[in-house]
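I'll show a typical protein example:
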Amino acid sequence: MFTTVHNERTKLTAAWFNGASVALYAVGGLAPMASSIYNSGGPNLLIAGGTVICILAATALHLFARRILKGLKP
């Protein structure tokens, strides 16, 4: 019984980190770049750099979530 509780908590934690990853990717990665492309000014180096940083951070959060799932007990 305690194994089931542990596994569910582990999955919930991993899902939270993965959700944060998706949010960071969408809000910090895609939205600023799309906004700058469709505005008259076009993308600049600051927006492109921030987008790359957010996408890398989102990838790190996702990989961390996958690592958490390795803690599931049989």
Notes: Residues 22-74 form one domain. The first helix runs from residue 2 to 38. Helices lie at 2-38, 45-69.
